[in-house]
Amino acid sequence: QNSPFEEKRLKSIVEPLESGLKDVKETVKGVKDDFQKFCAMNPEDPLCKNFTDQVSQRI
């Protein structure tokens, strides 16, 4: 059992990390969406070909 002080300290460390992680996830999702839009318009782009190949191999 942690003391209230320790709990508070742990919380002050963990909470910013969690919100940072959430920001990162949202950013990654945004980048992925933008990339998919780009590839929808430029399917012949080498970047998109590689990306599509990799994605279809993983699914």
Could you name the ranges where pLDDT drops below 50 across 5 or more consecutive residues? none
Strand portion, in percent? under 5%
Q: What would the average pLDDT be, to the nearest integer?
A: 87
Instruction: Provide a count of the helices.
Output: 2
What gross morphology would you assign? rod-shaped
Structural class: mainly alpha
Count the strands? 0
From the N-terminal CA to the C-terminal CA, the straight-line distance is: 44 Å
Q: Could you describe the largest sheet, including whether it forms a barrel?
A: none
Helix content: over 70%
Query: What count of domains describes the coordinates?
Result: 1
Q: Please give the radius of gyration in angstroms.
A: 20 Å
- The run of helices and strands is HH
- What is the multimeric organization of the chains shown? single chain
Summarize the structure.
The chain is mainly α and 59 residues long. Helices cover 86% and strands 0% of the residues.
Helices and strands in order, then pairings?
Elements (H helix, E strand, L loop, with lengths): L3 H38 L4 H13 L1
Which short descriptors sum up this protein?
single chain, 59 residues, mainly alpha, 0% strand, rod-shaped
Question: Could you characterize what this model shows?
Answer:
- The chain has 59 residues and is mainly α.
- It has one domain (4-58).
- The protein has two helices and no strands.
- It has helices at 4-41, 46-58.
- The longest helix is centred in the middle third of the chain and has 38 residues, at 4-41.
- The N and C termini lie far apart (44 Å).
